[in-house]
Amino acid sequence: MSWIAVRGPETAWTCPDTFGGADGTTTQLQTRGSIVIETRIGADERPQTLLGYERRHPWTGRIAFQAVPGGGVVVILAQGEQLFHAVIPPENSARTETLRLTYSWDAPERWGRLAVERPETGSVRMIDTPAPPPLMAEDLYTIIHRPELCDCDPDVIFCAVSDQIEPVGPMPSITESMPVETPRGPVRAGALRSGDVVRTVNHGPQRILAVVRRHVPAIGSFRPVTLRAPYLGLTRDIRVAPGQRLVIGGPDVEYIFGRETVLIPADALAHGFTGTVSETRDFVTYLQFVVPRHDALIVSGAGLESLYLGRLRRDRTALSASLLCDHDPAQLPEHVRAGYQTLGPFEAATLAQTRAA
């Protein structure tokens, strides 16, 4: 099992196998798992209560997640007289619109991790926490189904609970049905394995070193975007994660932007004739490929960035927290990302309209 609860603007779901009856009443302890919270960061950079809940029976307890200006987060958990506290301090960095917090705990192992990600930039900061307490399953049920008993900032996009230690770091971003070009023709992405060869835009055929997959709630920065053909070279509609970037080049790109090649995040194309946000409210499985030289895969006629690792293999802490934790660092590549300009929604729409004219 993995995800056991999700709450968003139009979603309030809990797994009946975990939470029992219709009212969620249970004395079960959740001794291991992860809470993932995603929020928008307001222009005023004010503190936010991402989640706050207090309980009085059968013993007093408190759950509090707070975000502070600059991308800092604070977690406070109380169980009776036991108090748990963890902090990631603010940082001076470029402002982003979205912040994703992942708190993971394994009470029997006396281990916990708090991580903050900025999905737009891919940056991750994390700390190991003091020995964390288990959480009450009934509290988690209340947080999902009884929001009137909780404090939650209106800018919070979603809160999700998993019974597993959820990864942070580089994330997959294409769906399994996408046709990926190989030397033997297009192959369904879900059928490709390590050792297979794919075609890339700048470096020709490359062998797949690793395939990463992740099953996530289809909400927030995980909610799929459908990009429509024939715009931007697509030969058929494709469904990708909002952060998946298209690599676009050509004379019109150089004429409009003064660059040979630009990047367009899928979510910049999701609110017009070029694409839409998918209507699914369930879960989605994404995958991506690690190739020796970071490049664009050819998918349905368009160039889609492969998984970018940077120097992940040199950071044992970050590697152990990622989807590639089981891979030998010596077998992973180091990637250099070309300094392409990333287009915003208006620029992306301008380019798409120019090509459609």
CATH topology of the largest domain: Endonuclease - Pi-scei, Chain A, domain 1
Terminal CA distance: 49 Å
List the domain count as a whole number: 2
* Principal-axis shape: globular
Mean pLDDT: 91
Largest sheet: 7 strands, antiparallel
What structural category characterises the helix and strand content? Answer: mainly beta
CATH class of the largest domain, anyone?
Answer: Mainly Beta
Q: In terms of per-residue confidence, which ranges show pLDDT below 50 for 5 or more consecutive residues?
A: none
Describe the protein's architecture and organization:
This protein has helices at residues 16-19, 137-145, 251-257, 316-320, 345-356; strands spanning 3-8, 11-14, 29-30, 32-40, 48-55, 61-68, 72-79, 82-88, 98-106, 111-118, 123-128, 135-136, 156-162, 174-175, 179-182, 185-188, 197-200, 204-207, 210-217, 225-227, 238-240, 245-249, 261-265, 271-272, 275-277, 283-290, 296-299, 302-305, 341-342. The protein is mostly beta strands and 357 residues long. It folds into 2 domains: 3-162, Jelly Rolls (Sandwich); 174-356, Beta Complex (Endonuclease - Pi-scei, Chain A, domain 1). The strands form 8 sheets. The protein has a 7-stranded antiparallel sheet with strand order 2-1-13-4-9-10-11. The protein is globular. The termini are far apart. The mean pLDDT is 91.
Secondary-structure blueprint of this entry?
Elements: E1 3-8, E2 11-14, H1 16-19, E3 29-30, E4 32-40, E5 48-55, E6 61-68, E7 72-79, E8 82-88, E9 98-106, E10 111-118, E11 123-128, E12 135-136, H2 137-145, E13 156-162, E14 174-175, E15 179-182, E16 185-188, E17 197-200, E18 204-207, E19 210-217, E20 225-227, E21 238-240, E22 245-249, H3 251-257, E23 261-265, E24 271-272, E25 275-277, E26 283-290, E27 296-299, E28 302-305, H4 316-320, E29 341-342, H5 345-356
Parallel strand pairs: 23-29
Antiparallel strand pairs: 1-2, 1-13, 3-12, 4-9, 4-13, 5-6, 6-7, 7-8, 9-10, 10-11, 14-26, 15-16, 17-18, 19-26, 20-21, 20-25, 22-23, 22-28, 24-25, 27-28
